[in-house]
């Protein structure tokens, strides 16, 4: 009997070891992918941020400590890009959170043509951002753009035909508008998911108690979306701080440097001036700012819940 039990245990142990090796074989490719394209670049860029290295002229990196970080906050180009990023991110965050929540509420409470409305809302998601930027760049051109042509020739409002991409203020507003158009559908999906996760019994009980219409939205629906605020807020913060494609394609940071954002400044420093150490330091500063705002968003929503 003991021999039989021992054989069974040995057989079970052998099967367990085989399954463990199969599991390891499945995990190893993903591990190497994550290490090669995420862990290693992050660690190496931290190493580079503490060195001076121009890969065209320098034979090897030269350790300079935190000099690159100090240099960043003394560099007018960096400070301008940082300011433009904060302007874009602040306006984008407020508008995308409010507008996508309103759209999600409308779609959530709309029965007729809801499928059609949702299709139009989510359609921009499938269009590449670079393509959207190119199309809107043509629409917003001062002389031959579709928008100014309609304002001048169709609506006979020539005073409203502006140099949308050739003026610092309107150029930034145009970039924000294009970014909102291309991403509002995704944020709306996230809010819709949060709305659909609210218990139907809670909504029905609120209606029975007389909390209908706006009261139900304010006192029942919005407080139950705290977890969704965290998710959508973090996504909006990250997108607002790492915006790149829209200003790069539509204005290339112009006019002047009025729409140059931090991601662009990092890109040009690394691949136009080949200063990999300074670019890595700026990238870590951007990453730290994004982490700080994401944690702040998490803390604010968690505090409200408590």
UniProtKB/TrEMBL annotation:
The keyword Transmembrane applies. Keywords: Cell membrane, Membrane, Transmembrane, Transmembrane helix, Transport. Gene3D superfamilies: MetI-like. Residues 82-297 form the ABC transmembrane type-1 domain. PROSITE patterns: ABC_TM1. Signal peptide: none annotated. It is a multi-pass membrane protein. It is found in: Cell membrane. The chain crosses the membrane at residues 21-43, 86-108, 120-140, 171-192, 281-300. The keyword Kinase does not apply. CDD domains: TM_PBP2. InterPro entries: ABC_transporter_permease (IPR051393), MetI-like (IPR000515), MetI-like_sf (IPR035906). Belongs to the binding-protein-dependent transport system permease family. PANTHER family: ABC TRANSPORTER PERMEASE PROTEIN (PTHR30193), INNER MEMBRANE ABC TRANSPORTER PERMEASE PROTEIN YCJO (PTHR30193:SF37). This is Sugar ABC transporter permease. It comes from Paenibacillus agricola.
């Amino acid at each position: 009997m003991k021999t039989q039990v021992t054989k069974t245990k040995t057989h079970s142990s052998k099967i367990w070891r085989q399954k463990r090796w199969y599991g390891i074989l499945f995990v190893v490719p993903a591990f190497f992918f994550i290490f090669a394209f995420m862990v290693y670049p992050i660690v190496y860029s931290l190493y580079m941020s503490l060195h001076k290295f121009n890969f065209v002229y320098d034979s090897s990196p030269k350790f300079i400590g935190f000099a690159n970080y100090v240099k960043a906050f003394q560099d007018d180009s960096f400070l301008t890009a940082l300011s433009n990023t904060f302007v874009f991110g602040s306006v984008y965050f407020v508008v995308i959170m409010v507008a996508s929540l309103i759209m999600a509420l409308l779609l959530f409470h709309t029965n007729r043509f809801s499928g059609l409305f949702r299709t139009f809302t989510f359609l921009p998601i499938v269009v590449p951002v670079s393509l959207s930027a190119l199309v809107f760049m043509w629409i917003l051109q001062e002389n031959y753009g579709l928008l100014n042509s309609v304002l001048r020739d169709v609506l006979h409002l020539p005073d409203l035909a502006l140099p949308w991409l050739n003026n610092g203020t309107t150029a930034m507003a145009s970039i924000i508008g294009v970014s909102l158009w291309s991403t509002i559908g995704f944020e709306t999906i996230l809010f819709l998911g949060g709305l659909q996760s609210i218990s139907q019994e809670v909504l029905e009980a609120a209606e029975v108690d007389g909390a209908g219409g706006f009261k139900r939205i304010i006192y029942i629906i919005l407080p139950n979306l705290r977890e969704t605020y965290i998710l959508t807020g973090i996504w909006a913060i990250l997108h607002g701080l790492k915006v790149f494609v829209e200003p790069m394609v539509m204005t290339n940071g112009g006019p002047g440097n009025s729409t140059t954002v931090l991601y662009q400044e990092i890109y040009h420093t690394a691949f136009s001036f080949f200063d990999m150490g300074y670019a890595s330091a700026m990238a870590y500063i951007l990453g730290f700012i994004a982490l700080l705002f994401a944690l702040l968003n998490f803390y604010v929503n968690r505090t409200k819940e408590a």
